[in-house]
Amino acid sequence: MKAILVLEDGFTLEGRTFVGSGEIKGEVVFNTSMTGYQEIITDPSYKGQMVVMTYPLIGNYGINIHDNESKHPQVEAFIVKEYCEYPHNWQSEGSLKNYLEKHNIIGIEGIDTRALTRHIRQDGAMKGIISTIDNDINSLNKKVNNYAGLVGKDMVKYVSCKKEYQWNKQGKYHVVAIDYGIKHSILKMLEENNCQITVVPASTSAESILEKNPNGIFLSNGPGDPAAVPYAVKETKKLLGKKPIFGICFGQQILGQALGLSTYKLKFGHRGGNHPVKNLLNNHVEISTQNHGFCVELPDKNEREKMGGYIKDLEITHINLNDNTLEGFRHPELNCFSIQYHPEASPGPHDSHYLFKDFIKLMSDIQ
Known about the structure:
Blueprint: E1 2-7, E2 12-19, E3 23-31, H1 37-41, E4 49-53, E5 57-58, E6 77-79, E7 82-83, H2 96-102, E8 106-109, H3 113-123, E9 126-131, H4 137-145, E10 165-166, E11 173-179, H5 184-192, E12 195-201, H6 206-211, E13 216-219, H7 230-239, E14 245-248, H8 250-259, E15 263-279, E16 284-296, H9 301-307, E17 315-320, E18 326-331, E19 336-339, H10 354-365
Helix pairs in contact: 7-8
Subunit structure: Composed of two chains; the small (or glutamine) chain promotes the hydrolysis of glutamine to ammonia, which is used by the large (or ammonia) chain to synthesize carbamoyl phosphate. Tetramer of heterodimers (alpha,beta)4.
Family: Belongs to the CarA family.
Protein name: Carbamoyl phosphate synthase small chain
């Protein structure tokens, strides 16, 4: 079935559906990972977005229940160059097509994903619309420009758990994980590091969290604009200095705001499993997995000293080697640290697994 993709600036491409039909809007972004499409489409950080895969052939190893990062797909639509109709892998339990069809997600192929990616890199991630029912480009362009987009919109409320739950019941360290859109692989990594994890909704009060007397608090990944969730920032401020805190991705953006920093939207974001990050504490370079469209603003050391407050004693620990954006910081006196990328790396390299051990050590040292 014919499918038309129109971006807000009028850029138009035509392809065909390999699953689904209808019309859907979202922010169009690209991911450079060569594998891991199942983890990508089930990552809650992609809520509100239509994902373009830069690797040309997608679907060749099927789908299995073990690689889901949440209970169902989170992407608004999935855009590929070529869909593999007949997957083959010893772990495969079904096709990507059937999985997306089950959850009413549109998938389109035959799109020039190289041209689309180059356009986004040049002009930035932008709003888009996919339609199989409207062939009028002017009509589609009007619809997409009437779409509000993600900036200023709280997307966390769509992916956070509705009530508290126990991920596992055993572990030396009790961790309360605040769910802004947490991935299952992060919870598995905490569990492997001897943590007992209580997952709570994003709107949970600091008082309720501290009543549980955890050894540490984890701020998870999540979708959308971090400036659109002031309630999360407000409660995180109350947690500073009370318990060790470890933030990942969206969690870093929340922690940064709680400390007094601001956030901004990147031109086209960082999404993929091949992003180089420099650890300034040991001068090692890590290849990281990333998925974010916003970032914490990085004032230089002199500016941080002038700003005072918590920011004065903030230590920058990691920098992105592609664009020098902030990838990690810590505040030793408050026993908190965070990373902008995904150290659980699902999918992706395992260079950054040590960060979970750093969290364990931080909790162990202040017991």
